[in-house]
Design a protein that fits this description.
42% helix; alpha+beta; 7 strands; globular; Thrombin, subunit H
Length: 189
Amino acid sequence: MSEQFFSVVHSLAINVEPLADGFVLPSLDELEQELPEPFRIAGAISHIDMSTARQLRNLGEEFSLLVDVINQQSGKINMLLSFLLSQLDEPTQRFQTVSIGGSQLSFLCHQPLHLHQQLRLKLFLHEEASAIYCYGKITELEQKPGGTLVHVSYSRIRGEDQEVLVRASLHIQSRQLKQRAEQRANQPK
């Protein structure tokens, strides 16, 4: 992917499956075909949620009760979806990100990987009640005291999934900035 998006420091559950040398990336159509159904459903629900949120903001204050009920129903669906997606988390392939963004991620690893190796990735975005299935390529390996910091750029990802990652990164950054502002406000002067 040639587009660059910012990344945020954030721990997120991911599954990483290293692929053999010579692995040929699927086309976007082939990626769509191999996409596990729960990932497809999560993407569709996320898109619907974005559209609904925009429409609800335009309703105004007189419909606040209706907006609350719709948000509660959406929350219940998101909880069920998060549970369904958690069933696809493979413990033997589980890692935690160090950073995440719309064009790349990084994670600490103790197994041997090599530069330019292709990886099959599952990203579990619990706060967004979504998950992303995509491919990435190792762009940098950094030796750290806790293991190897692996930098990965997405090499095959659906456009709508990339939008979810960008939106999730913005939400994470917003929460981090709010938390820092609260900490500064609570510090003795």
